[in-house]
Design a protein that fits this description.
It contains 17 helices and twelve strands. By secondary structure, it is α/β, with parallel strands linked by helices. Helix 6 (127-142) links the parallel strand 6 (118-123) and strand 7 (147-152).
């Protein structure tokens, strides 16, 4: 009979990214377990939780590096921390988000919508929010644009705390030039931004386009309009964390190793469904490319559609987007492939057929040239 691991698992279930981690951990334990988990619910009502956990003779710990967990993290057990603070816990492996990548991806998405005004709304007290902001600001600055920033003094975890910040948020949104592309630190923040826009009489996405982070489908679908969001491969990270903890319990060493939560793709919804290009001809051409992204369209099809010389349209594309018509077609078609890989169970053959690629080999070569990795590896990165 396999040895049963006893694991202290202090990850709250209120956020989609944490639930993703938990799904990955649970999947590993089903395959390689069984494991017994001591969770927040297990500790409820215990007067001395630390003593009780010691009596349980747990084998390992996965917990956020929050102040309230310091004693549990310091029990001397094999431990993986879910990093939410500024500083690494010395000598312990950590689950960390690639916040630089997340910020860049949000910036690229809003730049692709052809905005010239940008904004960021996040949480001053959260290191991950500040890191996402810095990366977002950096990419927007590279493109030659300025942006406005609002840090909230509350984590907006409840409507009561949101109400204290609501007026400041509304006044800030009204002060922004529009149309504006706005990144929210996460989906919770994005939801409150969209609600504030409604109260302020600002149209989403026509005046304020909003993108969040976590792709929490419940939150994103509850907003009006539904919110675009950056999806993270949290389930894969959870699986890797459980796998590493299993090795630590078995006596392997892995000090200071990071398990990275990466952004996989953007789940595009109505909150960023806009082309803000001032050049109406370019906007019309981009709309044509997006509408026909599942077809094997050529540059000549785009030129014929807008009834303009190729040279003139190319010059306008480079002025507005900083890339050629051909590169925009490739980018949009690659984005379609990524969406199908991450959001559907379609086989490569079915994806190739739907997107007008002549064969599996053709779409595989095409995707590797554009994305830098194979179709199989990308799907694995998204979904483990």
């Amino acid at each position: 009979m396999p040895e049963i691991r006893k694991v202290i698992l202090l990850l709250a279930t209120s956020r989609a990214h944490v639930r993703g981690l938990l799904r990955g951990i649970a999947r590993y334990s089903r395959v390689h377990g069984p494991w017994i988990f001591y969770t927040d619910a297990s500790l409820h009502g215990k007067r001395d939780a630390l003593s009780w956990l010691k009596e349980c003779e747990a084998d390992g710990v996965i917990a956020p590096d929050a102040k309230e967990n310091r004693e549990i993290i310091g029990m001397g057990l094999p431990t993986i921390v879910y990093r939410v603070g500024d500083k690494r816990v010395p000598h312990l492996p950590a689950i960390v988000a690639d916040n630089a990548m997340i910020g860049r991806m949000a910036a690229e998405h809003l730049l692709d919508c052809a905005f010239s005004h940008f904004a960021y709304c996040g949480f001053e007290s959260r290191p991950w929010s500040r890191q996402r902001k810095e990366s977002f600001v950096g990419r927007i600055a590279e493109a030659g644009f300025h942006l406005d920033i609002l840090y909230t003094n509350s984590d907006l975890a409840s409507w009561r705390s949101f109400e204290r910040e609501q007026n400041r948020l509304i006044q800030w949104l009204k002060s922004l030039p529009n149309p504006v592309g706005l990144m929210a630190g996460n989906d919770v923040c994005g939801r409150h931004v969209i609600e504030a826009c409604r109260i302020a009489g600002l149209q989403v996405p026509d005046q304020v386009a909003v993108i969040g982070v976590d792709n929490d489908e419940l939150i994103c679908d509850l907003t009006d309009p539904p919110m675009s969001s950056i999806a993270l491969n949290t389930e894969k990270a959870g699986y890797e964390a459980a796998e590493l903890l299993d090795k630590l319990i078995a006596g392997e060493k892995a000090a200071d190793r990071d398990i990275v939560v990466r952004a996989t793709h953007i789940a595009t919804r109505q909150s960023t469904d806009i082309l803000a290009a001032q050049d109406k001809t370019v906007a019309e051409a981009i709309r044509f490319i997006r509408q026909h992204a599942k077809e094997a369209i050529q540059v000549s099809d785009v030129v014929n559609y807008v009834a303009m010389s190729r040279r003139n349209l190319e010059q306008r594309f480079r002025r507005v987007l900083g890339r050629s018509i051909y590169n925009e077609i490739k980018r949009v078609r690659t984005e379609q492939i990524i969406r199908m890989l991450c959001e559907t169970d379609l086989s490569v053959s079915e994806i190739a057929l739907k997107l007008g690629h002549p064969s599996d080999k053709h779409i595989a070569r095409y995707f590797k040239q554009q994305a830098g990795m194979s179709l199989r590896d990308y799907r694995k990165q998204c979904r483990q």
